[in-house]
Amino acid sequence: MSDPxxxxxxxxxxxxxxxVAACACFSGPVSGIRKDIGFIEPIMCRSTVQGxxxxxxxxxxxxxxxxxxxxxxxxxxxxxxxxxxxxxxDLQCCNSYEYCxxxxxxxxxxxxxxxxxxxVAKPVTAGTYTNVFDFCMGRCRHSSAxxxxxxxxxxxxxxxxxxxxxxxxxxxxxxxxxxLGINVIVGRPGESCSLVCKVRGxxxxxxxxxxxxxxxxxxxxxxxxxxxxxxxxxDQPAEVVDEAPTSLNPGACLYMQMDERLTCDGSHQHTRxxxxxx
Length: 278
Description:
By secondary structure, the chain is of the alpha+beta class. It has helices spanning 5-25, 97-104, 112-115, 132-140, 168-178, 193-199, 209-212, 215-221; strands at 54-56, 62-64, 87-88, 93-94, 147-148, 152-153, 159-160, 183-186, 228-231, 238-240, 253-256, 271-277.
């Protein structure tokens, strides 16, 4: 009987060669992608999301909540971009939050370089805005400046996006928007703002006294022929009447140094108050 071991060794060598060939043909997962073949990165949008009927995306388009793309969260690009529908452009205020955001995103109305310098909140430690969309979403929301008597809007156009700066023109524009729905009345000598407004069937709005407590606003409604000065008095902002004693600087306009001390109830026999009524 012949020895079977040589035959077994041949079979083993053939099996080993087949296994090696199989490993070469069926190697592990591909570790890289060919440079000339890539995947298109999907376009994604940020949006205002909370609207019941309308939504604005960060490209400046407004659409109905039902028409937004559920995968990209982008509005269709068939509508108007940077739409200011229902907005008063002279005041930079709108009657719709979503159109306020869309209008605000227009580079011709909101400069990115100005926005990135602004603080998100009043404290010195507050951060700045990282992009225009965050600024527009924040500015267009309601604030205490939009409300009178804590429960009513000062105007239908209560979504405002103006960039507040230190120039006199910007301050005046911002002040005008905060006085929407407010009747600015010059009282008679010795009258408090509470009385000035009550006589007209309205109420004094304390939160708007700080808006009037500026020289440029006083000069808009009063003569201020003797200048405008900081002072301390419960009757301010006000103008000293011409008949006042010389020591009181007749004809001068006075504004309070500290806004937190402003009150509707203050009065002085020799001043006429500037009052916010609604």
